[in-house]
Protein backbone atom coordinates (compact mmCIF):
# COMPACT_ATOMS: atom_id res chain seq x y z
CA UNK A 1 0.00 0.00 0.00
CA UNK A 2 2.82 2.41 0.84
CA UNK A 3 4.52 1.74 -2.48
CA UNK A 4 2.22 3.96 -4.53
CA UNK A 5 3.82 7.25 -3.41
CA UNK A 6 1.31 9.50 -5.17
CA UNK A 7 1.53 13.19 -4.28
CA UNK A 8 -1.31 14.48 -2.11
CA UNK A 9 -1.83 17.73 -0.22
CA UNK A 10 0.15 16.08 2.59
CA UNK A 11 3.21 15.77 0.31
CA UNK A 12 3.43 11.95 -0.06
CA UNK A 13 2.70 8.73 1.78
CA UNK A 14 5.46 8.16 4.31
CA UNK A 15 6.61 4.84 5.72
CA UNK A 16 6.36 4.09 9.47
CA UNK A 17 10.13 4.55 9.79
CA UNK A 18 9.89 8.13 8.60
CA UNK A 19 7.22 9.08 11.19
CA UNK A 20 7.77 10.51 14.64
CA UNK A 21 6.62 8.26 17.53
CA UNK A 22 3.22 9.96 17.96
CA UNK A 23 2.34 9.73 14.30
CA UNK A 24 3.66 6.17 14.13
CA UNK A 25 1.39 5.23 17.04
CA UNK A 26 -1.55 6.75 15.20
CA UNK A 27 -0.73 4.89 11.96
CA UNK A 28 -0.33 1.60 13.84
CA UNK A 29 -3.77 2.03 15.38
CA UNK A 30 -5.22 2.70 11.91
CA UNK A 31 -3.38 -0.32 10.48
CA UNK A 32 -4.79 -2.47 13.30
CA UNK A 33 -8.31 -1.43 12.30
CA UNK A 34 -9.00 0.73 15.37
CA UNK A 35 -11.40 3.67 15.05
CA UNK A 36 -10.13 7.21 15.59
CA UNK A 37 -12.52 9.34 17.65
CA UNK A 38 -12.97 13.15 17.60
CA UNK A 39 -10.92 14.25 20.61
CA UNK A 40 -7.98 11.93 19.93
CA UNK A 41 -4.69 13.09 18.42
CA UNK A 42 -4.59 12.89 14.63
CA UNK A 43 -2.22 14.25 11.98
CA UNK A 44 -3.37 17.62 10.62
CA UNK A 45 -3.44 16.15 7.09
CA UNK A 46 -5.80 13.39 8.26
CA UNK A 47 -8.13 15.97 9.80
CA UNK A 48 -8.03 18.16 6.67
CA UNK A 49 -8.62 15.22 4.34
CA UNK A 50 -11.65 14.15 6.35
CA UNK A 51 -13.08 17.67 6.48
CA UNK A 52 -12.64 17.94 2.70
CA UNK A 53 -14.20 14.58 1.91
CA UNK A 54 -17.01 14.60 4.49
CA UNK A 55 -18.06 18.19 3.73
CA UNK A 56 -18.00 17.52 -0.03
CA UNK A 57 -20.07 14.43 0.63
CA UNK A 58 -22.55 16.45 2.75
CA UNK A 59 -22.81 19.13 0.06
CA UNK A 60 -23.45 16.39 -2.53
CA UNK A 61 -26.40 15.08 -0.54
CA UNK A 62 -27.89 18.54 -0.14
CA UNK A 63 -27.34 19.66 -3.74
CA UNK A 64 -28.38 16.16 -4.83
CA UNK A 65 -31.92 16.88 -3.66
CA UNK A 66 -32.38 19.46 -6.40
CA UNK A 67 -32.53 17.37 -9.61
CA UNK A 68 -35.10 14.99 -8.11
CA UNK A 69 -36.97 17.52 -5.96
CA UNK A 70 -37.79 19.20 -9.22
CA UNK A 71 -39.98 16.18 -10.11
CA UNK A 72 -41.99 15.78 -6.88
CA UNK A 73 -44.91 17.80 -8.22
CA UNK A 74 -44.79 15.94 -11.55
CA UNK A 75 -44.58 12.31 -10.35
CA UNK A 76 -47.06 10.21 -12.35
CA UNK A 77 -49.00 8.68 -9.42
CA UNK A 78 -49.66 9.44 -5.75
CA UNK A 79 -47.59 6.41 -4.77
CA UNK A 80 -44.56 7.50 -6.83
CA UNK A 81 -44.90 11.00 -5.42
CA UNK A 82 -44.84 9.73 -1.80
CA UNK A 83 -41.83 7.51 -2.54
CA UNK A 84 -39.90 10.33 -4.22
CA UNK A 85 -40.74 12.75 -1.40
CA UNK A 86 -39.40 10.24 1.16
CA UNK A 87 -36.23 9.72 -0.87
CA UNK A 88 -35.51 13.42 -1.23
CA UNK A 89 -36.09 13.91 2.50
CA UNK A 90 -33.63 11.07 3.20
CA UNK A 91 -30.97 12.90 1.19
CA UNK A 92 -31.45 15.98 3.40
CA UNK A 93 -31.02 13.73 6.45
CA UNK A 94 -27.79 12.28 5.01
CA UNK A 95 -26.45 15.79 4.50
CA UNK A 96 -27.23 16.64 8.12
CA UNK A 97 -25.54 13.54 9.60
CA UNK A 98 -22.49 14.27 7.46
CA UNK A 99 -22.30 17.96 8.44
CA UNK A 100 -22.45 16.79 12.09
CA UNK A 101 -19.63 14.28 11.46
CA UNK A 102 -17.50 17.04 9.87
CA UNK A 103 -18.24 19.41 12.78
CA UNK A 104 -16.57 16.93 15.17
CA UNK A 105 -13.31 17.80 13.35
CA UNK A 106 -13.50 21.45 14.37
CA UNK A 107 -15.09 23.03 11.30
CA UNK A 108 -18.35 24.94 11.74
CA UNK A 109 -21.53 24.46 9.70
CA UNK A 110 -21.37 28.13 8.64
CA UNK A 111 -17.82 27.70 7.32
CA UNK A 112 -18.87 24.67 5.29
CA UNK A 113 -21.88 26.47 3.82
CA UNK A 114 -19.69 29.45 2.98
CA UNK A 115 -17.28 27.16 1.13
CA UNK A 116 -20.14 25.64 -0.85
CA UNK A 117 -21.75 28.98 -1.71
CA UNK A 118 -18.46 30.59 -2.75
CA UNK A 119 -17.68 27.66 -5.06
CA UNK A 120 -14.58 26.74 -3.02
CA UNK A 121 -15.92 23.35 -1.94
CA UNK A 122 -16.84 20.72 -4.48
CA UNK A 123 -19.90 18.49 -4.58
CA UNK A 124 -20.45 15.42 -6.74
CA UNK A 125 -20.19 16.07 -10.49
CA UNK A 126 -23.32 14.00 -11.11
CA UNK A 127 -25.69 16.66 -9.77
CA UNK A 128 -24.74 19.12 -12.49
CA UNK A 129 -26.76 17.28 -15.14
CA UNK A 130 -30.43 18.05 -15.89
CA UNK A 131 -33.41 15.76 -15.19
CA UNK A 132 -35.39 15.96 -18.43
CA UNK A 133 -38.04 13.23 -18.10
CA UNK A 134 -39.66 10.99 -15.49
CA UNK A 135 -37.35 8.17 -16.63
CA UNK A 136 -34.41 10.26 -15.35
CA UNK A 137 -35.78 9.89 -11.83
CA UNK A 138 -35.83 6.09 -12.00
CA UNK A 139 -32.40 6.14 -13.63
CA UNK A 140 -30.94 8.33 -10.87
CA UNK A 141 -32.22 5.92 -8.22
CA UNK A 142 -30.82 2.93 -10.09
CA UNK A 143 -27.46 4.32 -11.29
CA UNK A 144 -26.63 7.30 -9.05
CA UNK A 145 -27.74 5.70 -5.79
CA UNK A 146 -26.27 2.42 -7.05
CA UNK A 147 -22.88 4.11 -7.59
CA UNK A 148 -23.23 5.88 -4.22
CA UNK A 149 -23.78 2.52 -2.48
CA UNK A 150 -20.77 0.96 -4.23
CA UNK A 151 -18.63 3.86 -3.01
CA UNK A 152 -20.16 4.16 0.46
CA UNK A 153 -20.36 0.56 1.69
CA UNK A 154 -16.55 0.49 2.15
CA UNK A 155 -16.78 3.90 3.89
CA UNK A 156 -18.70 2.15 6.69
CA UNK A 157 -15.27 0.73 7.62
CA UNK A 158 -13.55 4.13 7.46
CA UNK A 159 -11.01 4.71 10.25
CA UNK A 160 -12.79 7.84 11.52
CA UNK A 161 -15.58 6.76 13.92
CA UNK A 162 -18.25 9.45 13.31
CA UNK A 163 -17.98 9.14 9.50
CA UNK A 164 -18.09 5.35 9.54
CA UNK A 165 -21.14 5.31 11.83
CA UNK A 166 -23.00 7.90 9.73
CA UNK A 167 -22.39 5.72 6.67
CA UNK A 168 -24.13 2.69 8.19
CA UNK A 169 -27.51 4.38 8.30
CA UNK A 170 -26.95 6.19 5.02
CA UNK A 171 -26.18 2.95 3.16
CA UNK A 172 -29.39 1.31 4.41
CA UNK A 173 -31.41 4.21 3.03
CA UNK A 174 -29.47 4.34 -0.25
CA UNK A 175 -30.37 0.72 -0.76
CA UNK A 176 -34.09 1.59 -0.66
CA UNK A 177 -33.40 4.46 -3.07
CA UNK A 178 -31.71 2.18 -5.56
CA UNK A 179 -34.56 -0.34 -5.47
CA UNK A 180 -37.25 2.29 -5.91
CA UNK A 181 -35.43 3.61 -9.00
CA UNK A 182 -35.07 0.17 -10.52
CA UNK A 183 -38.70 -0.62 -9.73
CA UNK A 184 -39.90 2.56 -11.49
CA UNK A 185 -37.86 1.60 -14.57
CA UNK A 186 -39.12 -2.01 -14.56
CA UNK A 187 -42.63 -0.62 -14.74
CA UNK A 188 -41.75 1.74 -17.59
CA UNK A 189 -39.93 -0.81 -19.76
CA UNK A 190 -43.03 -2.98 -19.64
CA UNK A 191 -45.09 -0.02 -20.89
CA UNK A 192 -45.49 1.50 -24.34
CA UNK A 193 -42.62 1.69 -26.89
CA UNK A 194 -42.43 5.43 -26.14
CA UNK A 195 -41.97 4.74 -22.42
CA UNK A 196 -39.27 2.17 -23.13
CA UNK A 197 -37.50 4.64 -25.45
CA UNK A 198 -37.66 7.24 -22.69
CA UNK A 199 -35.83 4.84 -20.34
CA UNK A 200 -33.13 4.07 -22.95
CA UNK A 201 -32.65 7.79 -23.56
CA UNK A 202 -32.25 8.49 -19.82
CA UNK A 203 -29.84 5.55 -19.51
CA UNK A 204 -27.75 6.88 -22.42
CA UNK A 205 -27.45 10.28 -20.75
CA UNK A 206 -26.70 9.06 -17.16
CA UNK A 207 -24.40 6.10 -17.83
CA UNK A 208 -21.12 8.00 -18.35
CA UNK A 209 -21.71 10.67 -15.66
CA UNK A 210 -22.45 7.79 -13.22
CA UNK A 211 -19.07 6.20 -14.00
CA UNK A 212 -17.45 9.60 -13.36
CA UNK A 213 -18.91 9.68 -9.83
CA UNK A 214 -16.07 7.40 -8.70
CA UNK A 215 -13.55 10.14 -9.41
CA UNK A 216 -10.65 10.39 -11.85
CA UNK A 217 -8.73 7.30 -12.93
CA UNK A 218 -6.21 6.03 -10.38
CA UNK A 219 -3.21 7.59 -12.08
CA UNK A 220 -4.90 11.03 -11.84
CA UNK A 221 -6.29 10.59 -8.31
CA UNK A 222 -4.11 12.82 -6.15
CA UNK A 223 -5.60 11.86 -2.78
CA UNK A 224 -6.14 8.10 -3.09
CA UNK A 225 -2.76 6.77 -1.90
CA UNK A 226 -2.72 8.76 1.34
CA UNK A 227 -6.45 8.30 1.98
CA UNK A 228 -6.03 4.55 1.57
CA UNK A 229 -3.01 4.50 3.90
CA UNK A 230 -5.19 6.24 6.51
CA UNK A 231 -8.07 3.84 5.76
CA UNK A 232 -10.37 6.74 4.94
CA UNK A 233 -10.81 5.12 1.53
CA UNK A 234 -10.62 1.33 1.31
CA UNK A 235 -10.59 0.99 -2.49
CA UNK A 236 -9.22 2.95 -5.40
CA UNK A 237 -11.53 4.87 -7.75
CA UNK A 238 -10.93 2.43 -10.64
CA UNK A 239 -11.58 -0.64 -8.48
CA UNK A 240 -15.00 0.67 -7.45
CA UNK A 241 -15.84 1.79 -11.00
CA UNK A 242 -15.07 -1.74 -12.25
CA UNK A 243 -17.28 -3.29 -9.56
CA UNK A 244 -20.09 -0.92 -10.46
CA UNK A 245 -19.92 -1.80 -14.16
CA UNK A 246 -19.86 -5.54 -13.38
CA UNK A 247 -22.89 -5.20 -11.13
CA UNK A 248 -24.90 -2.86 -13.34
CA UNK A 249 -24.53 -4.36 -16.83
CA UNK A 250 -26.58 -7.50 -15.95
CA UNK A 251 -29.25 -5.23 -14.44
CA UNK A 252 -29.34 -3.24 -17.71
CA UNK A 253 -29.71 -6.49 -19.64
CA UNK A 254 -32.62 -7.50 -17.43
CA UNK A 255 -34.32 -4.22 -18.35
CA UNK A 256 -33.46 -4.98 -22.03
CA UNK A 257 -31.47 -1.78 -22.31
CA UNK A 258 -28.38 -1.26 -24.46
CA UNK A 259 -25.33 0.03 -22.61
CA UNK A 260 -24.14 3.10 -24.56
CA UNK A 261 -20.54 1.87 -24.80
CA UNK A 262 -19.26 0.19 -28.01
CA UNK A 263 -16.17 -1.03 -26.09
CA UNK A 264 -18.13 -2.93 -23.45
CA UNK A 265 -17.13 -6.59 -23.57
CA UNK A 266 -17.04 -9.45 -21.07
CA UNK A 267 -13.44 -10.41 -20.26
CA UNK A 268 -13.41 -14.06 -19.20
CA UNK A 269 -9.83 -13.90 -17.96
CA UNK A 270 -10.38 -11.06 -15.49
CA UNK A 271 -13.93 -12.15 -14.67
CA UNK A 272 -15.31 -8.69 -15.37
CA UNK A 273 -16.22 -6.30 -18.18
CA UNK A 274 -13.79 -4.28 -20.24
CA UNK A 275 -15.32 -0.89 -20.90
CA UNK A 276 -14.57 2.43 -22.59
CA UNK A 277 -12.87 5.42 -20.99
CA UNK A 278 -15.19 8.13 -19.63
CA UNK A 279 -14.69 11.57 -21.17
CA UNK A 280 -12.30 12.97 -18.56
CA UNK A 281 -12.23 16.37 -20.20
CA UNK A 282 -15.97 16.64 -19.56
CA UNK A 283 -15.47 15.46 -15.95
CA UNK A 284 -12.79 18.05 -15.15
CA UNK A 285 -14.87 20.72 -16.85
CA UNK A 286 -17.90 19.86 -14.69
CA UNK A 287 -15.94 19.85 -11.42
CA UNK A 288 -14.38 23.18 -12.41
CA UNK A 289 -17.90 24.65 -12.35
CA UNK A 290 -18.71 24.53 -16.07
CA UNK A 291 -21.21 21.67 -16.29
CA UNK A 292 -24.73 22.09 -17.72
CA UNK A 293 -26.37 22.92 -14.35
CA UNK A 294 -23.57 24.13 -12.02
CA UNK A 295 -24.78 27.73 -11.94
CA UNK A 296 -28.43 26.71 -11.48
CA UNK A 297 -27.60 24.34 -8.58
CA UNK A 298 -25.43 26.84 -6.72
CA UNK A 299 -27.94 29.64 -7.22
CA UNK A 300 -30.70 27.43 -5.77
CA UNK A 301 -28.58 26.71 -2.66
CA UNK A 302 -27.62 30.38 -2.25
CA UNK A 303 -31.25 31.45 -2.57
CA UNK A 304 -32.31 28.90 0.06
CA UNK A 305 -29.62 30.29 2.38
CA UNK A 306 -30.69 33.90 1.80
CA UNK A 307 -34.39 33.05 2.16
CA UNK A 308 -33.63 31.40 5.51
CA UNK A 309 -31.94 34.53 6.97
CA UNK A 310 -35.08 35.65 8.84
CA UNK A 311 -35.34 32.25 10.53
CA UNK A 312 -31.66 32.19 11.59
CA UNK A 313 -32.04 35.78 12.88
CA UNK A 314 -35.12 34.71 14.87
CA UNK A 315 -33.29 31.76 16.43
CA UNK A 316 -30.32 33.95 17.37
CA UNK A 317 -32.58 36.64 18.88
CA UNK A 318 -34.41 33.98 20.91
CA UNK A 319 -31.14 32.40 22.11
CA UNK A 320 -29.82 35.86 23.14
CA UNK A 321 -33.06 36.65 25.00
CA UNK A 322 -32.88 33.35 26.91
CA UNK A 323 -29.21 33.94 27.78
CA UNK A 324 -30.04 37.47 29.05
CA UNK A 325 -32.87 36.04 31.18
CA UNK A 326 -30.58 33.42 32.68
CA UNK A 327 -27.98 36.08 33.52
CA UNK A 328 -30.66 38.34 35.06
CA UNK A 329 -32.08 35.58 37.26
CA UNK A 330 -28.55 34.57 38.33
CA UNK A 331 -27.81 38.17 39.38
CA UNK A 332 -31.16 38.40 41.23
CA UNK A 333 -30.39 35.17 43.12
CA UNK A 334 -26.97 36.41 44.32
N1 LIG B 1 -17.35 15.00 -8.34
O1 LIG B 1 -7.90 12.43 -5.68
P1 LIG B 1 -9.33 12.19 -5.97
C1 LIG B 1 -24.78 10.54 -3.53
C2 LIG B 1 -12.45 15.68 -6.99
S1 LIG B 1 -23.44 11.10 -2.67
C3 LIG B 1 -16.72 16.13 -7.93
O2 LIG B 1 -9.68 10.86 -6.54
P2 LIG B 1 -10.73 11.60 -3.50
C4 LIG B 1 -26.04 10.25 -2.78
C5 LIG B 1 -11.89 15.44 -5.59
O3 LIG B 1 -12.73 15.99 -4.61
C6 LIG B 1 -22.19 11.39 -3.90
N2 LIG B 1 -15.41 16.16 -7.57
O4 LIG B 1 -10.22 12.54 -4.68
C7 LIG B 1 -27.19 10.79 -3.52
C8 LIG B 1 -10.54 16.08 -5.72
O5 LIG B 1 -10.68 17.50 -5.67
P3 LIG B 1 -10.19 18.39 -4.39
C9 LIG B 1 -21.00 11.93 -3.27
C10 LIG B 1 -14.74 14.99 -7.62
O6 LIG B 1 -11.39 12.47 -2.51
C11 LIG B 1 -27.78 10.06 -4.54
C12 LIG B 1 -10.14 15.76 -7.14
O7 LIG B 1 -11.34 15.52 -7.85
N3 LIG B 1 -20.26 10.86 -2.64
O8 LIG B 1 -24.64 10.39 -4.69
C13 LIG B 1 -15.35 13.78 -8.01
O9 LIG B 1 -9.65 10.69 -3.02
C14 LIG B 1 -28.88 10.58 -5.22
C15 LIG B 1 -9.19 14.56 -7.24
O10 LIG B 1 -9.88 13.32 -6.98
C16 LIG B 1 -19.18 11.12 -1.89
O11 LIG B 1 -18.78 12.26 -1.71
C17 LIG B 1 -16.70 13.81 -8.37
N4 LIG B 1 -17.36 12.73 -8.80
O12 LIG B 1 -11.81 10.65 -4.22
C18 LIG B 1 -27.70 12.04 -3.18
C19 LIG B 1 -18.51 9.91 -1.29
N5 LIG B 1 -14.42 12.81 -7.95
O13 LIG B 1 -11.02 17.95 -3.21
C20 LIG B 1 -28.81 12.54 -3.86
C21 LIG B 1 -17.30 10.26 -0.47
C22 LIG B 1 -13.26 13.39 -7.54
O14 LIG B 1 -8.72 18.10 -4.19
C23 LIG B 1 -29.41 11.81 -4.89
N6 LIG B 1 -16.21 10.71 -1.28
N7 LIG B 1 -13.46 14.69 -7.35
O15 LIG B 1 -10.48 19.81 -4.79
C24 LIG B 1 -15.28 9.88 -1.86
O16 LIG B 1 -15.38 8.67 -1.76
C25 LIG B 1 -14.13 10.51 -2.58
O17 LIG B 1 -14.02 11.86 -2.18
C26 LIG B 1 -14.23 10.42 -4.14
C27 LIG B 1 -13.03 11.17 -4.74
C28 LIG B 1 -14.18 8.98 -4.60
C29 LIG B 1 -15.51 11.09 -4.65
What are the salient characteristics of this protein?
334 residues, mainly alpha, Ferritin, 2 domains, two-stranded antiparallel sheet, 13 helices, 2 strands, 64% helix, globular, disordered N terminus, binds Phenylacetyl coenzyme A, Ferritin-like_SF, EC 1.14.13.149, PaaA, phenylacetyl-CoA 1,2-epoxidase activity, oxidoreductase
Please summarize what this structure is.
By secondary structure, this protein is mainly α. It has helices spanning 21-31, 44-63, 65-69, 78-103, 109-117, 134-152, 161-189, 193-212, 224-229, 237-254, 280-290, 294-307, 309-333, and strands spanning 265-267, 272-274. The chain has 13 helices and two strands.
Strand order of the largest sheet: 1-2
The unique ligands bound to this protein are: Phenylacetyl coenzyme A
Order of helices and strands: HHHHHHHHHHEEHHH
Approximate helicity band: 55-70%
Major sheet characteristics: 2 strands, antiparallel
CATH architecture of the largest domain: Up-down Bundle
- How many strands appear in the DSSP assignment? 2
Number of domains: 2
Q: What is the residue-mean pLDDT, rounded to a whole number?
A: 95
**Low confidence ranges:** 1-8
What coarse outline follows from CA principal-axis ratios? globular
Annotated CATH topology of the largest domain: Ferritin
Number of helices: 13
